[in-house]
Amino acid sequence: MSDIRTQTINGLEVHIDRSLCIGSGNCVNLAPEVFTIRQDAIVDFKDEVDDSIDASRLVESCQICPVDALLVYDGDEQIVP
Ligand code: SF4
């Protein structure tokens, strides 16, 4: 069952597919102002996301997901994965 969270951050639309996340923490380490690990050991957006994060670091933090649980769209174009 899919469990998708979506937020627009610094002009990019970011999707978390929580059904895929394995809780590795890679994205949290790179973008701690955006992502957090919840009590179920799965990632989620922070309650208050810092929208001013550098876009390239945000994209990189999604690219390093080992299971492609993080998708990024720039307008109509999917840029991650
Ligand atoms: S990098 Fe991917 S698998 Fe690891 S916590 Fe983030 S979303 Fe989950």
TrEMBL record:
Gene3D superfamilies: 3.30.70.20. The keyword Hydrolase does not apply. One of its GO terms (molecular function) is iron ion binding. Ferredoxins are iron-sulfur proteins that transfer electrons in a wide variety of metabolic reactions. InterPro entries: 3Fe4S_ferredoxin (IPR001080), 4Fe4S_Fe-S-bd (IPR017896). Pfam families: Fer4_13 (PF13370). It comes from Longimonas halophila. Residues 12-40 form the 4Fe-4S ferredoxin-type domain. The keyword Phosphoprotein does not apply. SUPFAM superfamilies: 4Fe-4S ferredoxins. This is Ferredoxin. Keywords: Electron transport, Iron, Iron-sulfur, Metal-binding, Transport.
